[in-house]
Each structure stands twice: as C-alpha cells, then as structure tokens.
Amino acid sequence: MKVTVLGETRPDERRVALVPDTVRDMKKAGIEVVVQAGAGRRSSFPDELYGDAGATVAPDSLSALEGADVVLKVQPPSEAELGLLGEGMVLISLLNPLGDAVSAKRIADAGVSAFALELVPRTTRAQSMDVLSSQAMVGGYKAVLLAADTIPKLLPMFMTAAGTIRPAKALVLGAGVAGLQAIATARRLGAKVEAFDVRPAVKEQVESLGASFLETEHDVTAEGEGGYAKELSEEQHERELELIAKHIRDADVVITTAQIPGRPAPLLVTEEMLATMKTGSVLVDLAAESGGNVAGSKPGDTVVRSGVTILGPVNLPSTIPYHASQMFSKNTWTFLKEMVTTERDLVVDLSNDVVGPTCLTHQGEVRNERVRQQLGLGPLPDAVESGSAASTGT
To answer: What does the buried/exposed string (b/e) look like for 178-188 if buried means 16 or more CB atoms within 10 Å of the residue's CB?
Structure first.
C-alpha cells in the first residue's frame, strides 16, 4: 500500500498531514510513504527528516501521486490537485463538508473515496482520531496568547514596591476543547477566569481548571449529538445574552469559541455589550470564520469598537505548525489504521463505526446525508447504503 502526503497550497496553511515520526511508524507497519518535496518545510520538518524516516521524497505533486492508494492532506484539495487524483484513490483530509457541499460532489464525481476528518464521530473509541479536538486545543491556547499580547495590561497579579497590580479578568464563552484550553492558559498566565457554556455537563471541567462557571436562574441548556452544542430557542438565547451582559462589562479579555456544526455561529456579544466594556478590553472571536460570536468581528482582521479591540483570527492551529502537525499526523494515522488489514491491504468497510460516519464520498456517491440534503440528492442507493466492505487498493 502506498500513502502520499501532499504539500499545502493554501497561503495561510503551515501544517503538514504527516510528520517524520509517524512515517517511521508506518514504515514499520509495511506501508510505503511518499512525501511531496517541501511539504513539511513550513512546519519545521525538512525533506531530510522524511528521507531519514524512510519516506520517498517526490519533486512535485504529480510524481508523488503516481500509484498512490491513499492521499493525506490538511486542507481540502485545490481544483488542480483534485484533477490529479485517480479513481479509486482514498483521500483523508479536512474537507469542510457542511460548508462546501459542491466540492463534495466534485470529489464523488472524480471517483475518489474521501474521508472528512471533521466527521470523525465524538465517541470514546474515536478520541485518538479526533482532529477537530486536537487542533481546537491549539487554537484555544493561541487565542489567549493573542489577547495577552494585545491588551494594554498585565494578566497576573503583581505585588511591587510601586503598588499591587490586580489580576486581569477573563471571560471564556464556550467550554469545548478550545474553551477549556483557553481557560487553562489564562489561568496559567494568572488571570481570574469566568466561563459559560450551554452544556451544564462541562461545569465540573471548568471548575477543575480554577475558573468560575456562570449559571442562570432559568434553564439555558442545549447539548446536541456527540457532545456538541445545538441551537437555543429564542427565549433561551435571550437569557443567555442577559447573563453574558452582566459579566462582560468587568472583563478585560473575552475569548469566544461557540460554534454549531453546519450552522452560523451564534451571536453572543452584541454592539450594546461592547459599549459597556472597559476601554482597552480585548475580544478574540474564534468563530469569526463561521459567522462570528462578536458583533463586528471580521475573519482575519482586527476591529476596534467603542474602545474595545476585536480580533478575528483564522486558522490559529497553523500558527503553531510544529506541534499542531504532530497531533494531526497521529490522529490521521490512527484513523487510517481502521482501514488497513493485517495483510496490509486497504479496505473501506463502511460498517465500521468510525470509518462509516467519516466517509464523505465513496463509489461515486456523496454519502453524508446532511451534505446530500444540501445538494438536493435523494436517499443513497441500496448498494452503497448497505455499508459492505470494498477493497480499494493494496
């Protein structure tokens, strides 16, 4: 079986799908690995390290893809890259399936079996394959560093001869993986932290990190499938906003992380709230790319409203590419092993409880039901829907 790692063409993407240590593990498992020259350069993994780990370094994407059974990427393939993928190849990558259904149809029409890493199920067994969680952890960490670098204050308390400096107050909205890491990082830097989430189950996790969990007198809960948040009712959302408004006026730093898969991010910080905040306060909107939690936030830009600085960073994991790539690589290899037999054959078994839900396209069909609905496609044909195993390479 031959696995190819392509370099990333998106300008702001510095990660690589496979790092040399993982290549070494794959070689021990009897898998041939080909890496496009320069694929790991921007994440501090030069070609020499891949060669030392046992990979073949190909000069370009065309030669790298020759005879490939599996193609690994971080970002979705470009039109040019998709044109190079052969029928029957397996593609494993982030593919933005719920945000770009048209691309999913193109991949299906090319005869490529694509696995969208965003669709890895949130189950205990699949935790080691959960790319979204590992990358969100990096994003939550970096968000606090951005805020600390922007705010005109110190985060920790200092007792000096010039007087006592009180600790900054941080408010984290959304206590998923990114939010919890933001809480932990802000606490390490000495800030006093409060956090809110619509899922009451995370209260214990928030408090275990040394933060205060905000609660309302009325029910504001919305936990969806797989532990993700789901949309609140209009009345619940109003109560949520009232709670946030009470606490945001005292915050020096606000990190927002609330996102709902396949839907625009909920608005959590309104223009009215911004007007009540202290001059010099900083908000980091990690949902800027999906609509934004903060009024006026712009993806990839910095906005100042009412004396408050709003950061809308995009693709934060790419800004710490070395360790983000390490985690991405381990997640991806663990997922790929679900399709590798002891005879080193590649088998797509759609009845597998991880492989099946992650499959976006197979045998010329878009398989994910939500994506099919967006495309106006009917139910899956029985032959594909049955989930029978299909050999796609050796």
So the answer is: bbbbbbbbbbe
| Annotated active-site residue in 43, 75, 133, 329 | 133
Q: Mind listing the pLDDT tens digit for each residue in 184-228? A: 999 999 999 999 998 888 999 999 999 999 987 655 555 545 555
Alpha-carbon torsion angle 92, 94, 100, 106, nearest 10: -20
The pLDDT of residue 218: 58
The reply to whether 363 belongs to the active site is no
Burial class (CB in 10 A: 0-12, 13-18, 19+), 223: middle
Q: And the tokens for 254?
A: 């606000």
Summarised one tens digit per residue, pLDDT across range 160-187 is 999 999 999 999 999 999 999 999 999 9
Q: How many helical (H) and strand (E) elements, i.e. helices and strands, does the chain have?
A: 14, 19
In degrees to the nearest 10, what's the CA dihedral of 80, 82, 88, 89? 90
Instruction: Compute φ and ψ for 316, nearest 5 degrees.
Output: -60, -35
Residue 127 is a catalytic residue: yes
State the catalytic residue, choosing from 122, 187, 188, 305: 122
Catalytic residue among 21, 78, 228, 363: 228
Query: Measured between alpha carbons, how far is residue 57 from residues 47, 96, 340 in Å?
Result: 7, 28, 23
Report the C-alpha gap between 163 and 55 in whole angstroms: 59
Q: Say if CB 255 and CB 284 are below 8 A apart.
A: yes
Contact 346, 393 (CB under 8 A): yes
* β-sheet bridge partners, residue 347: 391
- Pair 62, 371: CB distance under 8 Å: no
More confident residue, 390 or 30: 30
Distance separating the N- and C-terminal Cα atoms of the chain: 5
Could you tell me if 268 and 173 are in contact, meaning their C-beta atoms sit under 8 angstroms apart?
yes
Q: Determine how β-strand 2-5 pairs with β-strand 32-36.
A: parallel
Listed in order, strand segments (DSSP E) in the chain are 2-5, 32-36, 56-58, 70-72, 90-93, 113-116, 158-160, 163-165, 169-173, 192-196, 212-213, 253-256, 282-285, 302-305, 308-311, 346-349, 359-362, 365-366, 389-393
Clarify whether 290 is annotated catalytic. Answer: no
Collapsing DSSP states into helix, strand and coil, what is residue 365?
strand
Choose among 201, 182, 131: nearest CA to 286: 182
Q: Which of 25, 100, 106, 127 is catalytic?
A: 127
Nearest to 195 by CA among 165, 232, 169, 223: 169
